[in-house]
């Protein structure tokens, strides 16, 4: 019986450790080669000291494009304080859909007024490294390069979830 | 309405749960058709409309159904003319959103049309 209790306590301990790691883990590096609104590929290690917001999206996703005004507003509020906003454009469908085409992504950036850098994640490698499952998902990375928050789904300027993300960014910038 | 039986084998992670979308064969506008039907509360994306990738390389894109005012979702079941050939086998790709959610999911479902009874009426 004591052995069973010990085993259970070890399992519980492992589980708690895993959960903590998930909520505050090192942000995986990415290696996307194709970037829009950037002179060349951006690297995560060059962004240390900044708070980084990565938006996993695809232009054909209604919830994603609905979220863009909120992202533009967050960038407007916090870019000067050190927030770096990035888009990670991850297609839902195979290449025949057009979602892999840089020209189509560029048209979407123009249509929605997106001036921040956006990477093409056509092979979903970065999506997989970050363990993303839904469009859109916003990931907040702190100045030390650790993932501190993931926001899944659509939000808008002025709503409760926007206020929460805004507060989290302010807190991370203040660290 | 003539209806055929379709085998749906999920390629998604949640193999235990029934898929929220179904491919059925029917007649639309007087022609044999394939129809993508969704469970209650499931909204199919009209921006990334369902596509059936047939095993022989052909692709069938679904549409024809009315969409929401913002063109985001189908409000009816999208359909396409049934491709020529006795057998329909391939991968059905859909992007969808549950009504209670505010994010998109992508789903890939293996489909195979097994048989088409000539005297079956009603729906599966």
Give a description of the structure.
The complex is a heterodimer of chains A (175) and B (124). With 175 residues, chain A is α/β, with parallel strands linked by helices. Chain A has one domain: Glutaredoxin. Chain A has a 6-stranded mixed β-sheet with strand order 1-4-3-2-5-6, with helices on one face. The radius of gyration of chain A is 18 Å and the shape is globular. Chain B is built from no helices and 9 strands. In chain B, the strands form 2 sheets. In chain B, strands 1, 4, 5, 6, 8 and 9 form a 6-stranded antiparallel β-sheet that branches. Chain B has a 3-stranded antiparallel β-sheet with strand order 2-3-7, with no helix packed on it. The radius of gyration of chain B is 14 Å and the shape is globular.
Brief descriptors of the model:
heterodimer, A: 175 residues, alpha/beta, Glutaredoxin, 6-stranded mixed sheet, 5 helices, 17% strand, disordered N terminus, B: 124 residues, mainly beta, Immunoglobulin-like, 6-stranded antiparallel sheet, 3-stranded antiparallel sheet, 45% strand, disordered C terminus
Q: H/E order of the elements of chain B?
A: EEEEEEEEE
Question: Compute the gyration radius of chain A: what is it?
Answer: 18 Å
Shape of chain B: globular
The CATH superfamily of chain A bears the name Glutaredoxin
Describe the main β-sheet of chain A briefly. Answer: 6 strands, mixed
Instruction: Give the structural class of chain B.
Output: mainly beta
> What's the number of helices of chain B?
0
Tertiary shape of chain A? globular
Mean pLDDT of chain B: 81
Low-pLDDT runs of 5+ residues of chain A are 1-22
Kindly, what is the distance between the CA atoms of the first and last residues of chain B, rounded to a whole number of angstroms? 11 Å
Task: Supply Rg of chain B.
Answer: 14 Å
Task: Please indicate the count of domains of chain B.
Answer: 1
CATH topology of chain B: Immunoglobulin-like
The overall pLDDT of chain A, averaged over residues, is 88
Number of domains of chain A: 1
